[in-house]
Amino acid sequence: MRFSLNFSASAALFLVAAAATTGAFAPSAALLTRRQTTSCAMSTEAAPMADSGVPPASSQASDVAEEEIPTNLPSDVGMDYVPLATMLATGQLAEADQFTRDALIVIAGSKEKGRDFVYFTEVKNMPATDLATMERLWNKFSKGKFGYSVQKKKWKQSKGDFEAFCSKIGWTTKDGDVERKKRWFGASEFIYDVKKAPEGHLPLTSALRGTSLLKQMLNHPVWDNDDWKKEP
Question: What is the domain partition of the chain in residue ranges?
């Protein structure tokens, strides 16, 4: 199946929310959620995103090329990743990011437990097969600029310094002489353009209540070598 690849600046977000302060959840636990979401750059005063948080798929075309949509996309839990491949190939970055967020909820086993979020402690439950499948797609259709494996390299280059990491992958901006985290709410300050975005810019991960989720995602064993690159 072939599509005209139209990379866009559609606002996309991979983000997490802080856990509710209840007996069931640790007050500081980082959560992956579909509806009440905050970005890495979001201030604590920002309101949660409505519905899925994905804006309309209107786009600013930045690149056009022909790409073939892969259909052999393995999953250990029965996920169908053809929709993700199609979204990324056609430049629907917002929809692709929402799909990725939903997929993580499934592959971590959270959805099966009746939850629509993932604790950072559950990242270890995510099958390497599924993470590798999604990573290959993000990597392929961003020409190697997006994905967790790219972010892990940037994390290492930053020597585990979160502030340096955010600056390196373009999650910060300057107000005069003051450098601050970018905001996604209102008019998003993130760059949803494959050609213009820095390496590792997407997907976005919240660190509003700490960097545990981000660290767990980047430290998953699947990124320990390049086996994830092997096509099935």
Answer: 81-224
